[in-house]
Specification:
Number of helices: 8
Strand content: 35-45%
Order of helices and strands: HHHEEHHEEEEEEEEEEEEHHEEEEH
Helix content: 10-25%
Distance between the termini: 37 Å
Structural class: alpha+beta
Amino acid sequence: MKLKNIAIAFLGALLFATCSKKDDEKEYTAEESKAVVRSTMDNFYNCLQNLNDGGFANFFHELLFKEAVRDQDGETQSWGNFLGEKFEAQDYWDPQKNTEGKFAYQALKGTYTWNKNRELWEKTANNENITFIFPATKEATTNNGKLVIDQYEDTETTYGNDKVYLPTAAHLYASVDNTKVFEVTVKNVTFDKKTNFTMPLSAHISIYTNPFTTTIQWNRQNPENFIFDFAFSSPQGCTTGLHADIKLTTSDYGNITNFNEAIDKIAITATQGELQIKGNIDVKSINEKTKGGRELSVEQMNTYAKAELFKGNSKIADVKYEEENDKGVIYFIFSDGSKEKAKNYVSDFEDRVTEIFKRFGRK
């Protein structure tokens, strides 16, 4: 059993966190606990529906997924692809060529406005930022869409023999009819650059995808301890959080060749409303036991990767790994000792998610 399988198990268990009223510590019956898990999935699908119905999803679909333009060969393409091809055909993208992957922010600065009658971009001088003004859909009669990149900074480093440019600060946003639908802010990004490995020491990323806001933070507590925080929320009450306390086996970043092998332990708390899943993964022991392609036994899996599900301060289930017919199975073990397969609560997951986001399916 590889570490990625354990991660998948924990991510799967995360799906069962949902909103609830605040409660004191109490013992829940198995049926009450199962009802919580079922309501979790209903809440999860409702949140996905809210995401699909939001302003960002509509903008994203109309710009990049809806086949809106037919080319000279009779093939259809998205409105965004059409605008992008026109931009490149006018040589505006030339400053980005031969930059070895570095974003040519300074050279690309300017205001680019779509001329609907000529079907061409027109550039005017702008030393402050990169601005695109365009119809958000092919059917729009005015330039009601705007995309602005008003900050970008990066640092050069290497991974192995590859030179890469990692952003240290950035800001961009998009609006339709003067309503913001998308925004990204990157700040407080620092690295410890070594010969073989560049270690990120801190980062704060905020992403707004109307109506959801996502924040991602990474901070070093000491040379061998890092904290990762993720939060995803909307005004409609969809709230998810993930806190991970990561301890490394070494502070000698220059000799790290595989980050997974440099991890000692991970403590995870995933939260949504009053529900939490708390887990601990002994990564070092898993790496040692799986050397040479060896698989972990069921007992070892449950020793080195543990998880419990809580509602408020009350534990409602243990999360256990078992094997049946040579396949791994995740079980929820409830207060009365009864157990149910996690997959029983997500058997229609793929179908329901596909139905919610069906407009994004390529035809």
